Amino acid sequence: MKKKTSISVSQRLLKLIDSLPDSPARSQVIEEALVFYFKSRKALARERKDLEILNAKSKNLNIEALDVLEYQSE
Questions:
Q1: DSSP letters along 15-63, please?
Q2: Counting Cβ atoms within 10 Å, is residue 58 exposed (0-12), middle (13-18) or buried (19+)?
Q3: Model confidence pLDDT, tens digit, residues 15-54
Q4: How far apart are CA 19 and CA 14, in angstroms?
Q5: Could you tell me the pTM of the whole model?
Q6: 73: which DSSP letter?
Q7: How far is 2 from 42, CA to CA, in rounded Å?
């Protein structure tokens, strides 16, 4: 369900939207941009969480990797 709202954007941004090929509706362009923005933010948060987990476990992971390399070198 869509709900009508009002936002203020610069004239420059409106000109960019209006210059898009096939002239999609402004609302459609803005909605797609917002969906992309929020998906990007969610992905970034997920990547940060993954990095925190890897950093917290890095010491043990490095020890395991060295152990595996020792078996391979024999």
A1: HHHHTSTT---HHHHHHHHHHHHHHHHHHHHHHHHHHHHHHHHHHHHHH
A2: exposed
A3: 999 999 887 899 999 999 999 999 999 999 999 999 999 9
A4: 9
A5: 0.66
A6: H
A7: 22
Which residue in this structure is represented by tokens 């923005």?
A: 37
Say if residues 26 and 17 touch (Cβ distance below 8 Å): yes
Query: CB–CB of 28/18 below 8 Å?
Result: no
Q: Please give the Cα distance from 42 to 55 (Å, whole number).
A: 20
Q: Residue holding tokens 């950093």?
A: 55
